[in-house]
Amino acid sequence: MNLDVLRALDKSLLLTFNGSNNVFMDYFVLTVTSAYTWIPLYASLLYMVIKNNENWQKIMLVIGIVALGLLIVNGVNIGIVKPLIARPRPLNNADLQGMVMTVNYYNASGYSFFSSHTANAFLVSVFFCLLVRDRIFTFFMITWSVMVSLSRPYLGVHYPSDVLVGMIFGSSVAILIYFLYLRIYIRFSDKLHYISTRYTRTGYSFADIDVIICVLILSFIYAAFRAVLSI
To answer: Which residues form the Phosphatidic acid phosphatase type 2/haloperoxidase domain (predicted)?
Structure first.
């Protein structure tokens, strides 16, 4: 498969995902793609970390590791990859003018390859899935990161290949920082496995996990409610 075939496939998938001529879906996706929508999710993740770690040393380790991951993702992407590849966003690509739909005049600055929204979402979701080790939590976190990722080609600001690479890069950095977290954590704690009906095997309370799942569900309900009000 040569490069022209891949580009044609990328373009075809973009036009498949882009827009829907549905006002409800337009406003729903606009809310999902907004970082402000997910502030309660980030706050609930922080709450879980504080509640389930017995001292500030361990709490700051988790916070510091996640911050390091975000720094790596955005430093590599915004500082190196995007300026080097310099791929125009679909909405700004002259070859796609009149083909890519805009959604309520939404646009994004900078270059297209690869998607920072996607990479950041997968970094957070994969790291916390590894940290918590609960199937239901994993399902909801991965669903969230996929929904955020798919919002980008829908809005015409990223190609599917931008999203795919963002998924791979964000997940890879998440795995890398998780193993770094483990190496540091083991130095001052040997309590890595819990046997309890109240906690996951890494020591995170199922009750606190339920809080995060509720926040995610309510955030999607909020996005749907805003979309209904915008019709």
So the answer is: 63-178
Cα–Cα distance, 48 to 56 (Å, whole number):
13
Measure the CA–CA gap between 179 and 172, rounded to whole angstroms: 11
Would you kindly state where each structural domain of the chain is located, as residue ranges?
22-230
Sign of the four-CA dihedral 36, 39, 40, 41? positive
**Dist. CA 102–CA 160, nearest whole Å:** 16
Residue 101 is predicted with a pLDDT of 84
Residues 6 or more apart from 108 whose CB is under 8 A from it?
89, 155, 157
User: What is the separation of C-alpha 199 from the centre of its chain, rounded to a whole number of angstroms?
Assistant: 25
pLDDT of amino acid 1: 57
User: Residue 136: how many CB atoms within 10 A of its CB?
Assistant: 11
pLDDT in tens, 68-89: 999 999 999 999 999 999 899 9
CB atoms within 10 A of CB 74: 14
Closest CA to 133 of 44, 63, 203: 203
Cβ atoms 106, 30 nearer than 8 A = yes
pTM of the model: 0.92
How do residues 167-176 score in pLDDT, each as one tens digit?
A: 999 999 999 9
Give whole-number Cα distances, 97 to 29, 48, 91, 106, 155, in Å.
22, 46, 7, 15, 14
Residue type, 147: M
